[in-house]
Amino acid sequence: MELRRNQITVGELLDHPGCRKVLQRRFPMLFKHPILGAARSITLEQILSVAQAYVSPKKIEETLNDLRQA
């Protein structure tokens, strides 16, 4: 999927079956978090800025590659 320089929204990623599968596989706890619904309008770039404090750079890059291929 085209990530549009990380300006794609979380909602768009979740609505795409392939991307949703990637996110479910790599971050299963995300789908149990109560804020997920509110995060749909946040861009991938915004999520990445927060995620860098919790997720290794390697896992982030691998996830981005998987999303691009979805």
What Rg is obtained from the alpha carbons, in whole angstroms? 11 Å
Total of DSSP H or I helical runs spanning 4+ residues: 4
**Amount of helix:** 40-55%
Tell me the major beta sheet. none
User: What order do the helices and strands follow?
Assistant: HHHH
Shape: globular
Mean pLDDT, nearest integer?
Answer: 96
Structural class, from secondary structure content? mainly alpha
Q: Runs with pLDDT <50, length 5+?
A: none
Number of strands: 0
- Quote the beta fraction: under 5%
Distance between the termini: 5 Å
Account of the 3D structure:
The protein is built from four helices and no strands. By secondary structure, the protein is an all-alpha fold. Helix 2 runs antiparallel to helix 4 (57-69).
Question: How do the strands and helices of this protein lay out in sequence?
Answer:
Elements: H1 10-15, H2 17-26, H3 44-51, H4 57-69
Helix pairs in contact: 2-4
What are the defining features of this structure?
single chain, 70 residues, mainly alpha, 4 helices, 53% helix, globular
